[in-house]
Amino acid sequence: MPSITINGKKHEFKPGQVILQVANEHGIAIPQYCYHEGLSIVASCRICLAEVWQPNPRNDNKLEPLPKLVPTCQTACMDGMVVYTDSPKAIANQKAVMEYLLINHPLDCPVCDQAGECLLQDYSYEYGRGVSRFEETKVKQPKKDLGPHVYLYADRCIMCSRCVRFCREVTGTAELLVEGRGNQEQIDVFPGVALDNELSANVIDLCPVGALLDKDFLFAQRVWFLKETPSIDGITASGDNISIHHNEGRIYRVKPRTNLEVNKWWISDEIRFGWKWVHSEQRLASPVIERFGARVECDWERAYDTAAAGLSGKHIAVVVSPMLPCEEAYALAKAARAIDASAQFVIGPIPRQGADKTFPGGYTIFAEKCPNSRGVRRVLEAMNGSASGVLSFDDFVQRIGEFGGLIVTGGYPSEWVTPQFAGACKGKFTVVIDVLPNRLTAQADVVLPGASWAEKAGVFENVKGRLQAFEAAIPVLAGAKIEGQIAYDLISLIAGMPVTGPGSRESAEAQVVPVGGGGAGAARRPDWAGGWPGARGETALQVVDEGPGQVPNAMQVLLPRAALVFNAASARREMAGEAGALSVFETEVHHPSAGPRMEAEVEVVEL
Predict the structure, then answer these.
(1) For residues 183, 186, 190 and 196, what is the CA-based torsion angle, rounded to 10 degrees?
(2) Alpha-carbon gap, residue 152 to 142, rounded angstroms
(3) Which candidate, 317, 341, 216, places its Cα nearest to that of 269?
(4) Most buried by CB count within 10 Å: which residue of 38, 152, 315, 499?
């Protein structure tokens, strides 16, 4: 394989790669502003220039220096090429570029939202001169409101043109342009045009400095106070990889995580700003029961007792929301069958808006607005033993008269209960598990406050059948519980065991539920001490690969039977006493784009 030498170390490269791409792959620091792997190459910032020697075929392939420094972002690799990014010439250029960029740049770091994650700030320390020779008056540019989400501080702009290229190449909307010449050059929108396409806020992430800022995040929090939790979009069906930035139990912003197989480098504005309901003042925060015609708040124990008593002896249906992860769909189905062995499984309503829309850059916004309809369907069908026995929500509404009791889950970010459905539920003993008030919570016999996707861990299957695990970012709202924990508590109550606290362990159940295309594997049973694992920020569902390098195509859900309330010490003793062995494979979803993959070691665990 061909290779180049960068700063004294030899590295292989693929045909067509440029020097900067090889350097980035191998962790070699080359400063870069205008380059972005998702955009065209313009080589305008000039800070990545390097000294290059390459074989001359006209001189017996002897190494000869190129006459000038060349942009590493634009120069294709050649076998035998030697690159110096730390030579005196290259370092002098880096210092000169930084001095030029800082000539008119205001000293706004103390008040700039980009402080702490600003490339200009970082490169000033690493590559800057440390002094300024500029004595003239700085050019001041106006601040501009570009659209519903983006604010422009033009005097901070370094003219990398990332934002302009994004709007031309990825969204195809071309709202942004570069106007003016020389030191009067600036970014702007066309007259009468606003930056309001469905992906507009991605320019905030692309901006390497503090020129394009998020209106929603402006002056809200210093970035060094924020904790970052990897997650998956819990609002739409795309399964976009995101990072939730939070502090002290509150979300402040959501940003994309790179996954070339799913969302590449981008997310839609709908996903970026659609989490506000998580902190809504309307969140349900206490169980409610119907008592003597009045609706009263109560503790969880009383709510559980009321739910179990009201559903007992009835033919029931459980409506499993596609907003829930796969594990919780399984747990709720188990809880329903513990109450009624012939309980009917129903997939909750699947909201849609318009049609799928694919942008020129390949990013797609899907019409389906729920994260896990396919995962929930596969789990319920596997639990039921056939696909025909699982009802769609519309079919269920037509047959609702067959049932005496209902368990209904929601978790939608807005009103989802139609007046017709609310009316059809009257006269049925109804237990609702939801996060926000709606027509059904206003009339249900028992209301149990659930948790948002940001407050739990789990696995979603996106619209293309890809399984992806996510972590809990923030604690569950005080007074609410994760839906999986609620199901676990109901199973424990129905079996006559205490809802919390240590107990004896009788047996465990492991059911393999194929999701995403068949195949089944084995995985370590999770530690169930303390109740539902999702409440502790870990997923109960184990994703299993069929082989190295393949996308996970099966999952294994392991849920204890009713009597499984035990402490960790007793669990280890009792698990060690059981016969059998399971091969342990990796339990996290791996994306080929997420970097080198470590092959999972096979381990035998005695259970």
Answers:
(1) 180
(2) 8
(3) 216
(4) 152
* Torsion over CA: 239, 245, 246, 252 (sign): negative
Tell me the C-alpha distance between 25 and 11, whole Å.
Answer: 10
> How far is Cα 13 from Cα 29, in angstroms, rounded to an integer?
17
User: Do residues 294 and 419 share a domain?
Assistant: yes
**Which string of b and e fits 135-151 if b means at least 16 CB within 10 Å?**
eeeeeebeebebbebbb
Confidence of residue 309 (pLDDT cuts 50, 70, 90): very high
C-alpha gyration radius of the chain? 28
Return the sign of the alpha-carbon dihedral for residues 569, 575, 581, 582: negative
- Does one domain contain both 118 and 95? no
Tell me: pLDDT of 158 over 90: yes
Structure tokens at 331: 């747990």
Give the whole-angstrom CA distance, residue 493 versus residue 486: 10
Beta-sheet strand order (sheet of 150-153) = 143-145, 150-153, 212-214
- Do residues 123 and 129 make contact, with C-beta atoms less than 8 angstroms apart? no
pTM of the predicted model as reported, rounded to 2 decimal places: 0.83
Contact (CB, 8 A) for 71 and 106:
no
Q: Name every residue whose Cβ is closer than 8 Å to that of residue 7 and which is 6 or more positions away in sequence.
A: 28, 83, 84, 85, 86
Average per-residue pLDDT for the chain = 82
User: Terminus-to-terminus CA distance in the chain, angstroms?
Assistant: 47
The Cα angle at residue 384 between residues 382 and 390, in degrees rounded to 5: 100
Between CA 276 and CA 213 the distance in angstroms is: 19
Q: Which residues are within 8 A (CB) of 310 and not within 5 positions of it... i.e. 6 or more apart?
A: 405, 429, 431, 445, 446
Q: Tokens for 125, please give them.
A: 């320390």
281 lies in some domain? no
Band (pLDDT 50/70/90 cuts) for residue 294 is: confident
The tokens describing 497, both together, are 């065991």
Domain edge (last residue) among 276, 296, 320: 276
Same domain, residue pair 444 and 530 = yes
pLDDT in tens, 321-370: 999 999 899 989 999 998 999 999 999 999 999 999 999 999 999 999 99
Number of CB atoms found within 10 A of residue 247's CB: 15
Q: Are 81 and 52 in contact (CB under 8 A)?
A: yes
Length of the chain: 607
Supply 203's token pair.
């320019």
The H or E element spanning position 433 is strand 429-434
CB within 8 Å of 219: residues ≥ 6 apart: 113
Task: State the CATH number of the domain containing residue 559.
Answer: 3.40.50
Name which of 72, 85, 69, 4 is nearest 35 in CA terms.
Answer: 72
Hey, which residues does 405 pair with through a beta bridge?
Answer: 316, 429
At residue 40, the pLDDT reads 95
Instruction: Supply the DSSP symbol for 555.
Output: E
Amino acid at 603: E
Domain residue limits at 83: 3-100
The DSSP H or E segment spanning 44 is none
Residue 167: phi and psi, rounded to 5, are -70, -25
Residues 295 and 229 in one domain: no
d(Cα 352, Cα 321) in Å, to the nearest integer? 14
Q: Other C-beta atoms within 10 Å of 568: how many? A: 12
CATH number at residue 185: 3.30.70.20
Kind of pairing, strands 554-560 and 288-291? unpaired
For tokens 């070339």, the residue is 260
